[in-house]
Amino acid sequence: MLDFTWFLASAGGTRFLSSFGAECLKVELKSHPDTRLAAMAPIGGREARMKATAPLEGVTDPDMGGQFNNKNPGKRGISLNVRHPKGLKIAKRLVAISDIVAEGFSPGVLDSWGLGYETMREIKPDIIYVQQSGLGAQGTYGRFRTIGPIANSFAGLSEMSGLPEPAMPAGWGYSYLDWMGAYSFSLAMLSGLFHRARTGEGQWIDASQTEVGLFICGTTILDWSANGRIWTRTGNRSPLKPAAPHGAYPCAGEDRWLAIACFTEDEWRALTTVAEKPGWAADPCFATLAGRLANQDALDALVGQWTRGHDARQLMMALQQAGVPAGVCQTTEERCDIDPQLRALEWLTEVTGTKIGRWPVAEVPVKLSESPAYAGGRVDRGAPCYGEDNEYVYGELLGMTTAEIKNLADEGVF
User: Which pTM was predicted?
Assistant: First the structure.
């Protein structure tokens, strides 16, 4: 893969293929590097992090960005100025030896470089060109500049999230469609490879984060199309399948919460037993699910008063053992360092970067028994330093001498 991606929505897609063994050549230009200066490794490295009891100051070396390391492990990294005539010529040589060219710029950028799809097809007729943008390459908004939260808004996800009117939409906080876009992007590349294996044909794949978001909104779109009903925000309450209580309830400690959902009478009775509140079960207002739904404010207040005096994790275990769906609203520390289930799932994998050192990164969230993924890829490494693999790519793959590589670097091509 010749990888011109940047930011998570596109870089994450090539990351997945790299984790399953594809050789990924990540291209960067010094004047426009990827998002390297974010979530920087702490001064003192991993040892300092393990001893820390408060936030640490980060390094300023762009080769030691934690966010970049999590988005690009297992890839090779090269520097290349495609705007330079010699750089464009080299890019075309790399297209000739690639199966996939992937990018995540605003539509039209590669064309402006002289490296559009038709040009690539002339070089390699079966090339698979895959681009990921916020709104796609065609249509009225095709040239709009977007990032994940903007695509969220266009797809309707931001409007759907939050407390009921008159509260304002809350959005999703983190760029949710970055990861979802990355999953879709990787699937699109695999589909292109499958099609080529069957037919011998390459193709141009136009992917957009907004369309991924629309796909996630399928139920609400269908409800409007078929029934004329407009989605209204419900906060933490169940919007479609009736349940009460259904929400996130405060627990002992600072900002500790527990999600609880009771859909059936058995679950409701089990909750009252664990809570040792027989009066709740005997209250006519809560005797049926319909009654509990009609009196959710009062019910939520009672449940919240009870949970506030208990440890969230202990209460989760007690409710689960009684058959009540319940889950701790976990902090980052719990997800990364404490939760035994996530540790058993090995959702984090240790990889070693040349300068940043050894750190955990997110692993592919599926486990294949015969062909398992590994975030470190075939190079068994964290994300590359800037231009780290120039000697390998330009020397071994393209046959340049060390002197040629140095001269091109001096000319500003690398």
Answer: 0.90
